[in-house]
Amino acid sequence: VHPRETFAPAIELRAAGLILVHNHPSGGTEPSHDDLDITRRLVECGKLLGIDIVDHLIITADAHYSFKLNGRI
Fold it and tell me: CA 9, 34, 6: angle at the middle one, nearest 5?
């Protein structure tokens, strides 16, 4: 995931915020170290651009994990 590709459509559409979503096919909802790092990076980039990262969701077939609800955004 690169911030350039993540924010390009948001900039083009003049979005005020984004909700990030990705899946974990393994079924586990706990964020990986990489998930935590990229979320932190995207939140910081969003602050520079004035585009709020509202939440980042990890979804599986039966469950989900919200960075916002778990105090990580």
Answer: 5
pTM of structure: 0.91
pLDDT tens digits, residue range 26-45?
999 999 999 999 999 999 99
- What phi and psi, each to the nearest 5 degrees, are found at residue 52? -75, 135
DSSP 4-73: HHHHHHHHHTT-SEEEEEEE-TTS--SPPHHHHHHHHHHHHHHHHHT-EEEEEEEE-SS-EEETTTTT--
Q: Which residue has the tokens 């990705």?
A: 22
